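Quick start: what a row looks like.
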Amino acid sequence: MAQWGSLGTQWGINRTMAQIHALLMTAPEPMCTDEVMEKLEISRGNAHTNLKDLVGWNLVRIITRKGDRKEYFEAEKDVWKIFITISKERKRREIEPAIHLLRDCADRTKDEAAGPGREFHQQMKDLDEFLSFGVKVADTVITMKHASALQWAMRLLG
């Protein structure tokens, strides 16, 4: 769990959130907040906040059991679905706002005729073009079936 926690920061979530995700991914049954707290030795508030955030990321779903008032949490276990979910969320949370900012900066400097202002305008346009291309590639990949994406990547890398 500790290693997954370290990796979590690479895909945009905090260490505890990644550790909870790892715990739920490897758990044979959905777990309640108390079980997560006990296994990871974290506070109720920390567990609750991070579980809700994982639900918000669509990496974990809430399970209810008839006659039980507790909420249970279950992680998506399909690695390809996890990749797609993380890709979509990072696009929504990070890439799209960056593209909007770049476009806004380019729009505000479009009338610059020369010098640093013109260079800045062109740099914003170039960055927008690059990020937009990356988004198109990512959007194409996440619409593919896992095996097709792997074949495509192998051809690309080979």
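That is the whole record. Residues 62 and 73 are 5 Å apart (CA to CA). The first strand starts at residue 31 and ends at 32.
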